[in-house]
Prior knowledge:
Mean pLDDT: 88
Distance between the termini: 21 Å
Radius of gyration: 13 Å
Amino acid sequence: MPCAKCNDLCVRFPIRSPRELKRAIEIAKQNVDDGTVSEVQVADSPSQVRFSQLAAGEPWDDIVRYRFRCNSCRELFSLHAETYHGSGGYWEPENKRPVRENL
């Protein structure tokens, strides 16, 4: 279950456009910067660009997949999107029970 620090991140935020992907990256970066979450390495990630580079403005790959863990309660989150064909993706907690659909 999410804690008070990461509860606001327990939304399923759809990524349907480059603008929405940029917004999801900004939110993830803010939460990494303030210590709420840390990036978890994805062994089989198709992403060639590290999240820190992506957050600093590097162009994203055709497929982005990053994982994050709450530094307090260990809840896992995923940021994933297929950008080449525009089929989109999501920011979402990996544990679907606490998910609130995006407003």
